[in-house]
Write a structure and sequence with these properties.
It comes from Selenomonas ruminantium. Pfam families: DUF3006 (PF11213). InterPro entries: DUF3006. Helices cover 24% and strands 38% of the residues. With 66 residues, it is an alpha+beta fold. It has a single domain, classed as OB fold (Dihydrolipoamide Acetyltransferase, E2P) (Beta Barrel). It has a 4-stranded antiparallel sheet, with no helix packed on it. The longest helix has 16 residues.
Length: 66
């Protein structure tokens, strides 16, 4: 998991500072929980979606067969 600090909002984007190095990234505000605000800490969990990858590969192979 990655710790992130919500530095500020700029329109539809949230400026997040990630990890101990406080790497700045812009993140769509719509994907944040409604109850968070500037100055709050959140955690991000990024994982490989193996099921979605497999489905996309199968769909691509199906298109190649047609």
């Amino acid at each position: 998991m990655i710790s992130a600090y919500i530095d500020r909002y700029e329109g539809e984007l949230a400026v997040l500072l990630l990890g101990e190095s406080m790497k700045k990234v812009n993140f769509p505000r719509e994907f944040l929980p409604d109850d968070v605000d500037e100055g709050d800490y959140i955690t991000l969990d990024i994982a490989l979606d193996e099921e979605a990858n497999k489905k996309a590969e199968e769909e691509a192979l199906e298109l190649l067969r047609d």
